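To whoever is on call:

I kicked off a structure prediction for a single chain this morning and the downstream step that reads the tokens threw a length-mismatch warning. I double-checked the sequence; it's 527 residues and nothing unusual in it as far as I can see. Pasting both halves so you can look.
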Amino acid sequence: MLKCSVKHGRECYGESELPMFFEISRLLNSSVDIKDVLYPILELMSQYIYAKRSIISILNRDLSTIFIEDGYGLTASAKAKGIYKIGEGITGMVVKTGCSVTIPDISQERRFLNKTGFDLNKNKSTSFICVPIKLEEEAMGTIGIYRLKSDKFSTTQDVETLSIVGSMIAQAVKLRQDQLEEIERLKQENEKLNQELKGPQRPFKIIGHSGKMEEVYKLVSTVAPTNATVLIRGENGVGKELVAEAIHNASSRSKMPFIKVNCSALPENLIESELFGHEKGSFTGAANQRKGRFELADLGTIFLDEIGDLPMLIQVKLLRVLQQREFDRVGGIETIKTDVRIIAATNRNLEELIKQNLFREDLYYRLNVFPIFIPSLRERKTDIPTLADHFIEKFNKANNANIKRISSSAIDLLMIYSWPGNIRELENCIERACILCTNGVISSDILPPTLQTAESSHTELKGTLQNVLEGVEKQMLIDTLTSTRGNLVKAAEIMGITERIIGLRIKRYDINVKMYKNIRNQIDEDV
């Protein structure tokens, strides 16, 4: 109940607050959206009760975060800083407890976080009164005021006034709360859909947009921010090193060393020294102390390519690094600690090597924390035109050439070839074609012979299948009889058929065997 008092130069409380409540009610009725009338309400309230600042905050339940929705005497930058978690600071505490809080002097209160940057030195003895905005006993925000501390004002009446204003605007604040939460949900859903439409970000240097490569990109972006050990598997020439580099570049270690080691290229008697280093005099030729690759890669990433070729003795030492993050130099007595991320790669069947006792099972499980399989080029043929264009551009720059494009017939040949050497073979193929090209267009006739088809070389076999097969069979008989000097026993053995069958075929194709028996005599006579 409102009480009469001498306040603000007026004889009765009602003379000051009731007109304010009436005006707030009129403002609320004049607009559907509370966002349009919040500032006028705060300005009106501040003028009536002599507040330096007045603020309304709204809770976003989905984010468990409280934002300043509007404020009188508050700059836009200060408003943007006013973000609180539930229970954080005075505002967060009021939302959490549902009870009002009065701070007589904010400069003396540790719970007052001053996120909006209120000048405490300039505004000494400033009080802060904050009350919850509640609907059905649920706190959905706060309303608060700052004012200079004075005996003229009653904090009890301030709390009562703010509570009345809070209850008046509660329904409108609830609608605004629902609206803000829905906007946030739509924003997040829109960002998610955009990400799905864009797909995973393609790592730098890796070319291809096929479905299988998109899956690889997704795995790279997932594991890169972690420190997990990665095992990259795939055939030779698929780009395992590029994937390893992409993981390193997208990690928190990107500014630290990325050390590459090809385990199959190092001699077995030197690989331990290469990986772990050696002390001076530890073996013949060790004239100085030498740091190994693991020591050089500290705080960064080490890429162990062809891990399946690692000798068993070194596998034991590598297992120690993976388990305990420590190693010893060759000939050393000091244990060296290392903080290095390990990425391994192989084109070999490690599971089969384990069965043959050529690869340690415990090391396999330590390496296979996060496997990534890189598809072969024949599994991602839709990327071939893109890769071809990329290599043409690369060799144009390297050779100062001007190859404009690759013909559709040449593309057809690239698409039907199996590419056992994968991307490395394709790159070599395009480089050769760029060198041979004289008119700015790579055509099918300058591609390597291994890519040529009967049609492209105008040597296709024509006629029915039966005719073609008979022609091939007759030619095989003639070639074999020539090489055996007409010896039917040897010819049948070479062709994998019986003498009876070869006799029937000779009769069928009307082949003169005597002619081949006399070849030797003819040669001797010529000599």
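Update from on-call: the warning came from a stale cache, not from the record. Cleared it. Sanity check on the structure: The chain has a mean pLDDT of 84.
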